[in-house]
Specification:
The chain is an alpha+beta fold. It folds into two domains: about 1-40, no CATH class; about 55-145, no CATH class. Helices cover about 20% and strands about 30% of the residues. The protein contains four helices and seven strands, in the order αααβββαββββ. Strands 1, 2, 3, 4, 5, 6 and 7 form a seven-stranded antiparallel beta sheet that branches. The chain is globular, with a radius of gyration of 19 Å. It starts with 11 loop residues before the first helix and ends with a strand.
Length: about 150
């Protein structure tokens, strides 16, 4: 379960400074640089845990089948946080999952030299990885249905 986001609050000394301080604080909070720093609103129909500090997220617009006929939905996301931080967050969020190094997972063979892990619970998985020396950490959430 992700931690509860903390709201940024102005110190009470600033608020006690009167209306001018409140106006300055409001202008700073509404400035373009502050607006860009807000995390994206993520619709996550997979039901899998979603990392709380994403820079982008994209739900693929159609289901795909895997090699054995499961219909799967894919949510792809990125974050500027370190690979270690994201891996550790997912290990805590998915305590019962089995873990595989993405270098030993055939799904990621065509993506080159990656560092990261894939956590699996039954037929669902979360992969956390980055291309060596890349600054962005990628997250793939895959939720599959049983075969029909």
């Amino acid at each position: 379960m992700p931690p509860v986001p903390r709201l940024h609050r102005a110190p009470t000394a600033i608020l006690a400074g009167g209306a001018a301080a409140a106006v300055l604080l409001g202008a700073w909070l509404l400035s373009p640089s502050t607006a860009r720093a807000a995390p994206p609103e993520v619709q996550n129909p997979t039901g899998l845990p979603i990392y709380p500090n994403l820079t982008s997220a994209f739900l693929e617009d159609r289901l795909k089948t895997d090699a054995v006929g499961h219909w799967c939905m894919h949510l792809n996301a990125t974050t500027g946080d370190s690979l270690d931080a994201v891996e550790n967050w997912y290990r805590r969020a998915m305590r019962t999952a089995s873990e595989t190094d993405v270098r030993h997972d055939g799904t990621y063979d065509d993506r080159g030299n990656l560092d990261g892990i894939k956590l699996s619970v039954n037929i669902d998985s979360v992969a956390v990885y980055k291309a060596s020396k890349a600054s962005i950490t990628s997250i793939d959430l895959v939720r599959c249905s049983p075969r029909r």
